[in-house]
C-alpha cells in the first residue's frame, strides 16, 4: 500500500468508523465499498490500496475490531 493510500485510509477511518466495535459483515462490506469509492474519487485506485494490503474488507474488519488502522505486518 502506498504512503498516500495508507494516509487516506487512516484519515477516512477516523472520520467514518463507528465508535463501537462490530463484526457485522454487512457493515464491514459497506465501509469497504465506501472507502474504495471515496479513494477513487480523490485519485487513489483500488490497486494502489491493495498493493501490499489485505482486502479492504479485511482491513475494515480488523479496524472495527480494534478501532483503528491495522498495524503493518
Describe this structure in words.
- The protein has helices spanning 3-16, 25-41, 46-49, 56-66.
- It is mainly α.
- The chain starts with a helix and ends in a 7-residue tail after the last helix.
- It is built from 4 helices and no strands.
- α2 crosses α4.
- The model has no long low-confidence stretch (mean pLDDT 86).
Contiguous low-pLDDT stretches (5 residues minimum) are: none
Radius of gyration: 11 Å
Indicate the proportion of strand residues: under 5%
Shape: globular
Order of helices and strands: HHHH
Short description:
This protein has 73 residues and is mostly helical. 63% of the residues lie in helices and 0% in strands.
Topology record:
Elements (H helix, E strand, L loop, with lengths): L2 H14 L8 H17 L4 H4 L6 H11 L7
Amino acid at each position: 500500500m502506498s504512503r498516500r493510500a495508507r494516509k487516506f485510509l487512516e484519515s477516512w477511518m477516523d472520520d467514518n468508523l463507528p465508535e463501537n466495535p462490530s463484526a457485522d459483515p454487512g457493515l464491514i462490506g459497506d465501509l469497504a465499498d465506501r472507502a474504495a469509492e471515496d479513494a477513487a474519487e480523490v485519485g487513489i485506485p483500488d490497486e494502489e490500496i491493495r498493493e501490499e494490503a489485505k482486502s479492504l474488507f479485511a482491513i475494515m474488519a480488523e479496524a472495527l475490531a480494534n478501532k483503528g488502522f491495522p498495524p503493518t505486518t
